[in-house]
Amino acid sequence: MFFALLVPDPGxxxxxxxxxxxxTIAVVLALFYGTVMMMLGDATRPGAPLVWQADLAIGVLGAxxxxxxxxxPLAVTVGLLPLGAVSVTATGPxxxxxxxxxxxxxxxxLLPAGAVNIGTGAVYFxxxxxxxxxxxxxxxxxxxxxxxxxxxxxxxxxxxxxxxSLRDHAARLEAEQALREEKARLTERARIARETxxxxxHRMSLISLHAGALEVRAAxxxxxxxxxxxxxRSSAHEALEELRSVIGVPSSRxxxxxxxxxxxxxxxxxxxxxxxxxxxxxGVPADGPPAQLGRTAYRIVQEGLTNAHRHxxxxxxTVRLAGEAGQVLRITIINPLPGTVHARSRADASGGRGLVGxxxxxxxxxxxxxxxxxxxxFHLEAELPWPA
Length: 388
Fold this sequence. Notes:
The chain is an alpha+beta fold. Helices cover about 65% and strands about 10% of the residues. It has 11 helices and 5 strands; from the N terminus they run ααααααααβαββααββ. The chain has helices spanning about 15-40, 50-65, 75-80, 90-105, 105-125, 135-215, 220-245, 265-275, 290-310, 340-350, 350-365; strands at about 275-285, 315-325, 330-335, 370-375, 375-385. Strands 1-2-3-5-4 form a 5-stranded mixed beta sheet, with helices on one face. The longest helix is centred in the middle third of the chain and has 82 residues, at about 135-215. About 30% of the residues are buried. The model is unreliable at about 1-5, about 250-255 and about 340-350 (pLDDT under 50).
């Protein structure tokens, strides 16, 4: 890709410095090629159209014109082509100009330019009074060099188009993935909000029920009053805890009561009935965590088992629950991964939205989650704060 430096990629963040390097390479390469051809060819023989000093001077002026080749590739090429009819040194700048033109223009423009360059070789031969070899030699040499310059330039052009296309495609994929993840977050937030709404509605209905009972009853014993006040206080406290965990939005339709940690056994049983091998160990104390924490744990295990059933091998999974009040509730789910790399990458891609939902739910609960392949298994571990 050495010649690709002659026409830097305009999208590069270091385009300015690369332009200077490219200009230097272009001028040096053009002068080197032109000088070598002048010394080996007929420019120094008697009968040349110009003395070799003038031939060299024209070549130097042509090389200087290459500094404008990026902004005006066609104009520079058209201006340099006639010089090849009288100056051998100018063939160097002409070849570099043709290469630049091939990088930036389509073949319909390149073919006439290449033909003109070959034709100037015949003109130079006719203007020379004492050529060392026949015209065919000049035509063959110019044809080969011209074809090489144009062909390499077209290759660089195609490579840049492909690179640009791949970059655009990658950018679109990243944008689409970001949109999918954001949609997954919003969906999970909406589901959490609906759950919170239903639970709050239940708590408030209990408060209203107990308050109404106190209102309609004329005589209430101190014991009954204490029980009712305790129920009202407990319901109000739990409702406030729900509000602290997440800000709910009104639900457009009622939903059934949301499952919690007490329903984990049913979830495991359903997974086993569906054909999964689940190793389940619940190390949580019998009284369990608060209701909202239990619901979060239930949803994490539910999503983890779903991913294991869809994307794991077997399918099988290991589920561990551990923790106590005043510390954290730790949830660990491990499932074996498919054997092939392709299957693993496909599983990671298709399970990504579920993992995004878990991350959103854990973040709202104030915890953190880690997940990823470890050896031949996929590990998902979440830690949730458990108030004392």
